[in-house]
Batch of 4 targets.
Target 1
Amino acid sequence: MATPINSFHLFSRKRDRNHFVKHGVALAGTSKTADERKSQMASPETRTRAQTGKDLENQIAELRREVSEISETLSRQGFHILDSARDTASDVYGLLKNKSAKAAHVAGRQAHHVADTAREKPLASVALLACIGLLIGLMVRR
């Protein structure tokens, strides 16, 4: 009568046993595969590493979500700042346009006043222009 082959007798060398365990072959007298045995025989350090790896993956995923939220927030703030700057520029442009229109109107009135005065007093106007020309000539000469 043949005796059942036990894994101890079948594998006389540890290397042969590791080969079969590594490739998931069920050993005689057991119904568990190598992967099942590995998970049961895993040291606390291996389990801790696996858990740490999962924790790191979760943290990386969380950081990616946070970076995405920050990017969206900055984008919204950027658009808000751009709209605010556009509104401010528009207000300044409108203010300058009104001020320049008023200044042009005042300058036009002054020009008409000077023209009317020159028509009324032509000798005084010529004398004034001659004095201004003389002053400019003296300044250029020096």
Target 2
Amino acid sequence: MLRRIAAGVGAAGAAALLCSAAAAPAAAQESSSTLEITVERAGAGTLDRYWLNCDPDFGTHPRPQEACAHLRESGGDLERLRSGAAYCPPTESPVEVRITGTWREEPVDFRVRYANGCYARVVGGPVVPSAWE
């Protein structure tokens, strides 16, 4: 009798494990994030567009793994890309950044204007691609 109970518990445990393993890819796919990052450098007259997908990390962004790791660490809080300490020259050569799409299934529409490329690189971190990437 004990063998039947143990076999039944073992089978139930195996079935639960298989069900949770099958659900894992669906959960990971549901939390996927897709962003379009547009960087306009008015002084240079350029407009660059990048795609960034996180979980899994890939896209036309030059450093998708670093950018996605930075976003995950901040909980997807793009407001953190708006200001920060930066030691940059006081030159005025505006860089405008717009990020749209979804982060963990939540809509995103973020805009920020940096004084110059140095501020964009330092404050925007790995999320905002530099002109030379």
Target 3
Amino acid sequence: METEARNRPLLLSLKPRFADAILNGSKTVELRRQRVSAQAGTLIYIYASSPVMALVGTVDLREVVVANPADIWERFQDQVGVTEREFRSYYESIETASALLLKNPRIWSESISLAQLRDLGSFHPPQSYRYFSKTDVSSIFSAMHGRQNDRRASCHA
């Protein structure tokens, strides 16, 4: 079961400021309180939470580093996109921190809104992250290709 989960894409739910920073390349490390069991090369879908509420792009997982918060801060403080105060508040009373090292951010030219995602099925953005199923990924591609076909049809009408 764990191996199966490790090979599936991830969906990260992020505040828009962090989603933007990851996708523009200024934030290359995403912080998590819980260990994320994923392999290098895992595709990560970025969902920007309210007020954006949309899938906005993807990024690849380079590595997961698990250590105590002080070590994570020491190694990655210039790449996490938060102040030391925000970092300490986030990891207050937490003994083990996870750092997702990211590479190859890809901003989509058009995002897929929460309403569009819900039209495809019972999509619910996670509080933190979740693994995507093959059905989830197929739905996303259907939404993206459907939009492209709609544009082509309107151009030829």
Target 4
Amino acid sequence: MPAALASTTSEYQVAVVSNHLTTNASIIELFGLAKVTVNEQENRVVVEPLGRY
């Protein structure tokens, strides 16, 4: 969630892409806070804030 409120794009790697992560990513997108891309092959997450808050 904090990455969705940042002023720039955040990218990080996770040990496991869990259901919890993908659910949170969907909710963040539904609220229009950021575009979240989850790459399950590389276990990488990219969060691009939309700046609408």
